[in-house]
Amino acid sequence: MSRNHGFSVLRDESLDEYAARAIVLRHDRTGAQLLSLVLDDANKVFGAAFRTPPECSTGVPHILEHSVLCGSRKYPVKEPFVELLKGSLNTFLNAFTYPDKTCYPVASTNLRDFYNLVDVYLDAVFFPRIPRAVFLQEGWHFEWNPAGELIRSGVVFNEMKGVYSSPDSVLGEFSQRLLFPDTTYGVDSGGDPRVIPSLTYEAFKAFHDTYYHPSNSRFFFSGDDDPTERLRLLDDYLGRFEARPASASVARQQPFAAPKVVEMPYAAAPGQADRAFVTVNWLLPDVADQDLVMVFDVLEHVLIGLPSSPLRKVLLDSGLGEDLAGGGLESELRQMFFSVGLKGIKPGTSAQVEQLIVDTLTRLAAEGLPADAVEAGVNALEFSLRENNTGSFPRGLSMMLRALTTWLHDGDPLTPLRFSGPLGRLKARLAAGERVLEDALRLWLLDNPHRVSLTLAPDTELDTKRLAEEKAELAAVAAALDEAGRTAIEADLGLLRQFQDTPDTAEDLAKIPSLALADLPRDETPIPQRIVAAGKAELLLHPLETSGIAYIDLAFPLAGVPDHLVPLVPLFGRALLELGTERYDAVTLTRRIAAKTGGISREVLVAGLVDAGPDIVAARLVLRAKATVEKTPELYDILEEILTKTDFGNRERFTQMAVEAKSRLERRLAPAGHATAGSRLRARYTLAGATGERLRGVSQLFYLRELVGRLGDDYAGVRRDLETLRDLILTQSGAMAGLTVSEAAMPAMEHALAAFLAGLPAGTVAPKAWTRPVLAAAEGIAIPAQVHYVGVGLDLTPTGWTFDGADLVASRYLRMAYLWDRVRVRGGAYGAFCSLDRIAGQAVFVSYRDPNTEATIEIFRQAGRYLMDADFSDEEMTRAVIGAIGDIDAHMLPDAKGHVALARRLTGDTAERRAALRAQVLGAGMARFRQYGEALNAAAENAAVVVLGPAPSLDALGTAVPGLSRLDVL
User: Fold this and answer.
1) pLDDT tens string 498-535
2) 138, 330, 354, 660: which is the annotated catalytic residue?
3) Structure pTM?
4) How far apart are CA 833 and CA 844, in angstroms?
5) Is 13 a catalytic residue?
6) Has 641 been annotated as catalytic?
7) What are the distances in angstroms from CA 263 to CA 167, 280, 626?
8) Could you say which of 65, 79, 330, 876 is catalytic?
């Protein structure tokens, strides 16, 4: 057994699925475990994971996850995490709390930056300062509001109030917890807001002492860095500890003797009084059996993965609900579970939904699953596994999380990564005619008594009751305080404010490792591109290594769409993929797409055009498709079918789609209120902003409600509208097609794409004028929530401001410094963001899960003054510039590179402009920061305000925000 830097090599093997060398090691002194993957991936990943099973719902693992990143032995500043965010080229920097583990991953393509991140995170998890003030800030504390009333606040406390305001989140949380009443999965590791205040500082500290030890850890590296250096970095920390017995394990839940039925209330708005939720949930076997995991992965896709999947289709065709509920297969815990149901059902119909699910599964087990559905499920899973396309999420991090599913419970970390064996065995069994999926369905679903049916019933008074109960409880606590009690609260507040108000010293800040400007590339890495004409269309060709996959983006102009049909475009795009065609019905079409391709998706791209003014918009319907190179003829056949022969006569299915879209937008308001506020603000300033809001925001919700009402009486008219959109949009005139594939495959693929486009209709459509709505300067959007989402928009164009790349640096710095400190740290909100539209000239500020309203609005308005008065050191400015370059140079996989190049072409964002912007970013200094601050400060005189939150808060805010117009959307 070889040894190196205190580690012994247990296994050294090839991991063919990822062209990687996999080394499994154990630290001799502590027993810490390491999985080290060596592969050709510049996006290097490190992660530390600890088993952290909570015993109750105080949220102690979650609060600790926040807190260890608030200063450590070697880096004794208040927020090393934020300092890294300010001045790193990281491609990922975060932490996760799971029901059974806490993970601390980082990633970077820059080697020196990567080592810096690893060192800061290792010091944070093993040697955090976590003083009482950090517990009060990140967890919870008492304070008095301006009215003199005792209240509670804290970052995690307010975050979880936001989580519990979302019925979807509550449904998912309790679908799991009720299946695992006797294990750690039966409590909320994130924290229940009603339980969090029972957590003490002493218990918080003890949790770290118990679980954050090398003997309870799993470490992970992947990428093209030196595997020996990885060991040295780790041993420098692990060598300071001694081994001790493992401090944690996750017990298996013992099976139920009979199914259970549970009903709980959820906080509903007045318009949701007739909408309940139901899930039927089954406990499944251990994840250690990866052959069985593969069976359930395919079975999930067959049952509910496609619009035409048999269980999904039966549920939606029943008319009992508006949309599918449940998370499907959960395979990241020690024992898997399966969850499915319906949202938007009538109260009292849960039993009907459950019986329908059981009857459908019984029929499928007896008659057999459709062969084409099984083929589609197997192909979709295999394509996904082999492509390993994780989007902006680092591939290495995805592999780490998969490895942990078995590794955390003392299993083999490589088993979940070696998918070829289980997949090959499953395909062989299916090819031999074995009823693998049907047998699993019967054994683990139909004949499994460990089943829980959960109903969330609407209660329009629940929020009011909870608020009243919390207020009464706090009033009772305040009334019972003696002098010592009040003194203790004041002492805690004093400790907290002193901690927050005391600036980090320059000496301590200098300890945070950072790059220098000389380490930054002066020029962007170009995306290879060749532009050629193809009839009336244009091809953008990107020769990149794609592992045998062709990525195709088809962008069709929307300029010819009449104004009244613009809000119908998103549903039109979805209809192309789900309604069926002249040759294929909806079921056959969706299964053929899954069986023969890597998938086809759609999006509506809306953006401002460079130097074109506020009333010009680049708007396209984009179809994104992918397939292995050898299957592209079948992909083009499918694309030609849906673009020219879609049958819009399926009223029942189109109505389902419209109801689903409406329901999803309604449910999105609470968990993503910051996005709604930002969209509503941008709608005030430009045609691009207004169009985006009409397609995705509150205006889209209002449109969908009208459309759903129209479908019953005038589907013939709706069908004509859909056919009109096809005639206006899906032509080769003005179309732009992006193709990303290997250099070797490019000539043949270019020819095939050009021939495909030549077969499209050649019509030319005159542009139409689109409207920009007139919105109130201040809006309050009422939603059932325990927290707020506050937005402020500042229009810089009337101030005489013109864009400079340094303004992006200043905007980013505001987010990482000023807003983080004032809105999150001091205000207790979970997050605060600001963005600058460099084309249109507006700055938008939003907060997330915020206990405040008026105070946050004022903080946003004062952002310009902060920049005007600030005086940053050269080191601080350097960090700000490095962080901005990191954003600009975000790591992209090949398909993303092709898509970004397409968007740049559509908006007029040229290489020359980006080079000028980059030079301005690299040259950013205090003088330009102050100029930008002056523009923000001047624009604050006419700030627009949008706040989402509970109605009583909005009514109270009306006195502080003149002209606030309340909008009840639910």
Assistant:
1) 999 999 999 999 999 999 999 999 999 999 999 999 98
2) 138
3) 0.95
4) 8
5) no
6) no
7) 13, 12, 43
8) 65
